[in-house]
From TrEMBL:
Sequence ranges assigned to domain Pyridoxine 5'-phosphate oxidase dimerisation C-terminal in this UniProt record: 175-229
Signal sequence residues: none
InterPro entries, per the entry: Pyridox_Oxase, Pyridox_Oxase_CS, Pyridox_Oxase_N, Pyridoxamine_oxidase_dimer_C, Split_barrel_FMN-bd
GO MF: FMN binding; pyridoxamine phosphate oxidase activity
HAMAP family in the cross-refs: PdxH
Domain Pyridoxamine 5'-phosphate oxidase N-terminal: 43-151
Name recorded for this polypeptide: pyridoxal 5'-phosphate synthase
Biological process, per Gene Ontology: pyridoxine biosynthetic process
Keyword field: Flavoprotein, FMN, Oxidoreductase, Pyridoxine biosynthesis
Documented EC number(s): 1.4.3.5
Annotated function: Catalyzes the oxidation of either pyridoxine 5'-phosphate (PNP) or pyridoxamine 5'-phosphate (PMP) into pyridoxal 5'-phosphate (PLP).
The organism of origin for this protein: Photinus pyralis (Common eastern firefly)
Amino acid sequence: MDIGGIRIPYKTRANAFLEDSIAVKDPIKLFDQWFQEARNTQELIEPNAMCLSTATRDGIPSARFVLCKGYGEDGFQFYTHYTSRKGRELEENPNVALTFYWNALNRSVRIEGTASKLPMSFADDYFKSRPHASQIGALCSDQSELVESRDKLVEFADELRNKYESGEVPKPPHWGGYTVVPKSIEFWQGQNDRIHDRIKFRQAHNDEIPDSLLTHKGVGNWIYERLQP
């Protein structure tokens, strides 16, 4: 089926985007500004949903959506089963990519970096704060493993619900958190004229000096540059 004609006009926001990017010069602060706007946009149900792309030791990629559970100067956090496919791939190859897409704002953020496990105390505290249904869901699933049928999963979940009341569900032993420390963060703003805005922040190479024409000094060790769409 040819779907090449599907196209939605974007809002024109070029001036505001350019000014925001140059003024902030800090990708984490700029991400926070964008995220707070996405969070306050009614059409976006899960603004913290992000596509997590991993790869095996041999470079075979896979991608799936997870929920970002924290961000800041230390990185971007999420939680999962260490024994899942993504957990196994992260063990082999910690290089990852994250992508946020906020269609109502015509914005996307791409992050590339390195993932490492968070202290287990973080996972313990976060697991206790999760809704009862989410706790049961994590405990009943041996994520990414084969299962005979959905009925088997539902039956096991019912057993766990009968066994554990809210606040009593134990955290699965191989369930924990990761933080992705970014090496680059790219901000994309769709434009109605299709000349989209792309501003990329990246960590400076050794002794790199920005030329203030194509490369510009950001905060700390960050350099930012405009990419052609």
